[in-house]
Amino acid sequence: MPLLRTQHSVLPGFTLSFALSVLFICLVILVPLSGLAIHVSQMSWAQYWGVITDPRSLASFRVTLLAAAGASGINAVVGLLLAWVITRYRFPGRRLMDALVDLPFALPTAVAGLTLSALFAANGWLGQWFEAIGISVAYTPLGIMIAMSFTSLPFVVRAVQPVLEDLTPDVEEAAATLGATPMATFTRVILAQLMPALLTGTALAFTRSLGEYGAVIFIAGNMPFETEILSLLVNIRLDEFDYAAASALASVILIASLVLLFGIQLVQSRLTRRWKGH
Amino acid sequence: MSIRVEQIQKRFGDFTALDDINLDVQEGQLVGLLGPSGSGKTTLLRIIAGLEKADQGKVLFHGKDVTNLDVRKRKVGFVFQQYALFRHLTVADNVAFGLRMLPRKERPARSAIRQRVNELLDLVQLGHLAGRYPAQLSGGQKQRVALARALALKPDVLLLDEPFGALDAKVRKELRRWLRHLHEQISVTSIFVTHDQEEAMEVSDQVVVMSQGRIEQMASPLTVYEQPASRFVFDFLGHINALKGHYDGRSWQAGNAQLRLTTEGACPDGELTLYLRPHEADLSKTPSDSANLPVKLGARSVFGGTVTLELEALGWPAEVMEVELSRDAWQALNAQPGDTLFVHPRQLQTVTCDGNLGPRVTPA
Questions:
Q1: In a domain, A27, yes or no
Q2: Residues B5, B22 contacting (CB under 8 angstroms)
């Protein structure tokens, strides 16, 4: 197979559009990344290892990972439910609901963070009810999780929605004529077909949560070893002009995200390639 | 298992999809529901399957009332128009789906399921594609997988919704022969929906012709064609030429066209419409005493043993007519496009004033 396989197309300009895409990816993504790599490469392995295994760093990894995992878990369920309701039912306000899903993308994350922390503070509208049953939300890992799930919810909904729209009702009817219960139809037919999209959406939500900063710091409390997330720690190191340590920490998020994204891409393409018959 | 449908009524809003439908299907028969789109045939099929609920009426399988029985418990095999295969499962897993959905007590062992799937795939001649995904199959192959899947649970009744609708002409023809053959092998009571007259005629033991939510006629293909119960049935089964004119007691006239015949089917004011089937007429270069229908030869289409001719009425009002001749007759006629010819009907169907079918007549 040739390196570049260009099919004859009625729209010209493959070369130009391809070159522009590569240029843009370089400028916006690859150049900053190599800056990071250069900073990190100035450290020795021992220094690098020292920074990322520092107890405070390890604690922040733990908080960030657990909160992001929790948030993605919540979003996988809630996002699927939202996508389901929006695509399957016709009700007044459906379009509004559909539009609201994108709000977390549109809202500046700091605004979201402030609002959430006000809501969930011990005396806030929602926080007081949680406080009444003995659960503190603001300034705890739970609060971090809520902030993360707020900012990353659209990823799941928008990944699942188009696939859900493509599922035809006759497939569900076929399952019913074959004796499948509603539950079995949902899990074995619908969910099974949604899985690649749901995985992708959840993974995107997870990586987004790993790097979330603005929405989280207001509600997190930012206690070292307890509610200090990785992005905040990076910021603290920057304030201390310790660029190398900041870069080392950032590289961890970066590598984790890249591995996850590539992994998901691989699983997804393997599954859907067969389903689509290539 | 016999199927009986009693006084089924179904409305969608203001639209009456089915109006007082009664139907009896004998055990082991293959019945074709034939009608134009919107005639209610698919709705009827879905009601029999339990995928749709009738507003009124009953469905009985082998004398047992199943009207309120859930689709899951009706033991029907249903083949969907667009196949509705599970795209995330292999061919073998698609076929095995129903068996795997059985409650644990009734579910066969893994090896038994595998064996049954292999049997079914052999039956539909797709054993070699067991590991493929639906997207890797052709339309005809998908259709056969859908059929194997529907047969996996040994259904009492097999229902097929436009089973060949989405296939190209050649595959269609092969598949419907094959379905006929398969039905002889397994003889499960089957109903299929089609809008294709040829398909219904070739495959069915009994044809049910439907129009606007009603059954127009149910009979064997031969009877439906030779003794249509209504004008609609006559009209719907194959092309017809409608000839409108006046009848004076001895001959039918329209412009300078004339046919000598005797009938009592005419309206009081003398109007008389005659239906002529394309294959029930001859052509010659001269008029006869009994028939003088001058036409101009237009386009011709030669396909198989027959030649279909388009004829334009010369000096009398009529739509473009269609007449079919055998290849030999066409060659003997030795005519060119643009030539003037004369149509000699062998048999005509009169239409009464109120739009029903009158007696058949022969020009003499």
A1: no
A2: yes
